[in-house]
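Second attempt. The first submission of Translation machinery-associated protein 20 had a stray character pasted in from the spreadsheet, which I only caught after the job came back as garbage. Lesson logged: always re-copy from the clean sequence file. Corrected sequence (190 aa) follows.
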Amino acid sequence: MFKKDISPGAKSKVKSSVQRTIRAKVLETYPLLEPYIEDIMPKKEQLDLVKLPDRVSLYTLSQTPLFFQHMDDALIPHLTLVHQYPHAFHRLRIDRGAIRFVLSGATLMAPGLTSPGGRLPKDPNDADGKYGTEELQPGEVVVIEAEGKETACMVGVLKMGTEEMKKVKKGQACEAGHYLGDGLWQLNLG
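This time the job returned cleanly.
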């Protein structure tokens, strides 16, 4: 979605009623963020809306990007937010071979997640349960981590459920929403 460099468009203040709606939607979509919501979106602070190309809206607090949304799609967290609260999102892990494809903006394919280096929910190799115990459905927002790396490299929307990925082991698994080094990551809001 953000393969090319992008420049921010018009910036406007979000009405308090809309801000409450966004906050409620964030808590509904990402319930694990509840303990941190006051730090992320304080009630007394002003949320800003930055228009981006291709009808994408970016919600920011001061100069910090929080969430983006394409038209009426799901609110997707910006990677800076994911890096601050990595345990508050559904996570999957790709193997080393898939990293370069993900960082070039390619759609994540199922073999990158189902190979020995990848991790999905209910994975027998996931001893501490870091990747969850519930299967994820198509359309859910997930954070993608890379084998051997500390921080997440991508956040996107599942095109296929994790249970189906384990069975089929091929096909498009996740649409690249936002990844390290893309136009959204390099966007200058200053």
